[in-house]
Structures are given as C-alpha cells and as structure tokens.
Amino acid sequence: MFDIYALAASLIGGVLLTLLANVASIKSRSLSMTLRDTLSSVTGFIRAAFGDEQVDQQGKLLTRAQVAAAFPQGTWQRNAYEDYKAVLLDEELVFPCVYATKGFKSDDQLYLFIDSDDLSDPRHIRSIAKALSIYLPQAHELGPNTSLVLLAKQNDNNSRTIEEYNSLFWALLNGLAKLDEKPWPSNIPRDIDTDRWCFCFGGEQFFTVIQTPAHQVRRTRYAPGLTMVLQPKWIFDILFSTDAKRAGALAKVRALLAKYDPIPVSPELKNYGDEGSRESKQYFLLDENLPAPCPYDKLSDSEVVAA
Hints:
Largest sheet: 5 strands, mixed
Structural class: alpha+beta
Shape: globular
Number of strands: 5
Radius of gyration: 20 Å
Strand order of the largest sheet: 1-2-5-4-3
Helix content: 40-55%
Oligomer: single chain
Order of helices and strands: HHHHHEHEHEEEHHHH
C-alpha cells in the first residue's frame, strides 16, 4: 500500500542528506547508521502524530532502525529497547560484556519482542523458534559481535521470583528443543550435567544469558523487563582466535564484573570444556554464588525431526 508517512519521512530525510552532502562527504558507516536511525525515528513520529495504527511487529526480528520506526517513544517495546540501550552505552558504569556493547554499536544485533515475561507460554516459544530459524542463516553476515536479543514487556507487579524465572527459562529451552527442525549436533552430548554440553538449535551451538527484574544483587543480571541474549558460539572462535586473546578478554571482563556487581564473580564462570565446568550453570546466575538448579537431565527430543 502507498504509505504517506514513510514518504513524508523520506522527503525530510532527503532534505537532510542533501544539506549534509553539501557540507561533507558521507563515508563513515557510523554516520550513515546515525542518519538511518534518525530517519526511522522521524517515520515513527509521523505515524504517531497522524494517528496511524502502530505496525504489528510482534514476533518479528528487527534491526535498530526498524525498532525506532515501528515503536514510537512511550510504547512498551520502545521502553524495553531504550532500557537495554542505556545499560550498554553507560560510560560511567561500563557494562562488563563489552562485546554486547560493540555488537549494539556496530548494529550486529537483531531484536525480538514478546508481550509477557512468561517464557513457558507456547506462543513465545513458537515465536522465538521461528525467529532463531530466520536469524541463523543471516547471522554470519551481521558481524562478529552478533546476537539475537529478546526483550519482554515489563511485568507491572514484578511478582515473579528469581527461582520462578529460572524455571521459565529452562521451560523455554526445552520447548525450543521440541520445535527444532534440525537434529541435535552429534558432537554435543545430550546430558546437561557435563562439561561439553551447551544449548543447541538449528544445528548451531548457542551461549545464552538472561536478565530479570527479580535480580537485585547481581546487577549484571538485572533488567526492568526480562531480557535474554542468544549468541551463536562461533563468534567466540572469531573473538578469541588465540589463547592470548581469550585470556586477555576474559581478564578484562572479570575486572569489569568486579566493579559492576556488588557480589563476587560467580565461581560458575569457567571456560567451556574445562574439567568441572558446566555451561548450563552460566546461563542463569542467581543473586548469590550458588548454582541455579536445572530441572532437566536433558532437553526433550525434537518433535519435528521425529515426525
């Protein structure tokens, strides 16, 4: 359909680009991305101002620019996104996962929104499974700091406990395993309580981190609304291509963790595959230095592959 709002935004953006072109040549990626984000914000503003209905982007993977275009300021989706953005770009209290910040700045991340923080909801499990299936084929093209970022609508009463969120998190992983259209990788054990297990989907290995509004002590795992980041593990092969790079990066992250969290660094944060390590215990950290319980010995078999 003909979209007068997008046309108006394009015309305004065209004027801006023409003016800027007369001043300097637009060559840098960061500047062009800033202009793109600005143009998308203008589109969202025009839609809101003229009363156009908000575009339904529930369950769709979005770039930064698309988030700005789809969700005007004040919508719950935009609030969740801005909260996430503010943490990563805080220059006074530097977020320890510097690669997440780099991924945001370089626009390597894609965003998915769900309308509640009940990760066991079959709607959300299906939505996330679909998003992962769309994300994986393009992940390598997005950049070396790519990840899929899940942002949930903030729970108004924040009544869930950390333990409840942990149970919901594992219910999600188990539900995703049931919907996986590809077999579990043969080189990854199915038994979770081993030093070689990690979550897999679509034939790819993932590292995942979850933040909840219930966390109060471990600041790195707190977010006003549930936030979950899924990172394909091949990015670590790029970032930590040598033992020296890995050691330097981990030392930097641990130093930032010590400053960021008022609780000592979790003893569960060990190298994958090291004797005694359990990656499953790193995904969801408690507000105390005890391992979060995992309700499964192994995740369910795929119902899709079996069929």
